[in-house]
Amino acid sequence: MNVDTQRSILNMNVSNIRLRIVARVDLLMSLRDELEAGTHALAGG
After folding, report:
1. How far apart are CA 20 and CA 26, in angstroms?
2. Which of 8, 22, 29, 40 would be a feasible disulfide site paired with 45, CB 3.0-4.6 Å?
C-alpha cells in the first residue's frame, strides 16, 4: 500500500468520526430539549 492510499483511508476514517460526533451531539441536544420540556410539564409550567 502506498502513502496516498493510506492517507485517503485515514481521511475517510476521520470524516466518518466527525460525522458520528456531530450526529451524537445533535442527539444529545434534542434529548436535552425534550428533558427540559418534560420537566416544565411536570412542574406545571
Report:
1. 10
2. 40
Domain ranges of the chain: 1-45
Q: What is the pLDDT of residue 41?
A: 87
Give 1-45 pLDDT, tens digit per residue: 799 999 999 999 999 999 999 999 999 999 999 999 999 888 886
Rg of the chain over all Cα atoms, to the nearest angstrom: 19
DSSP letter (8 states) at residue 13: H
| 16, three cell numbers | 466518518
Nine-digit cell string for 18? 466527525
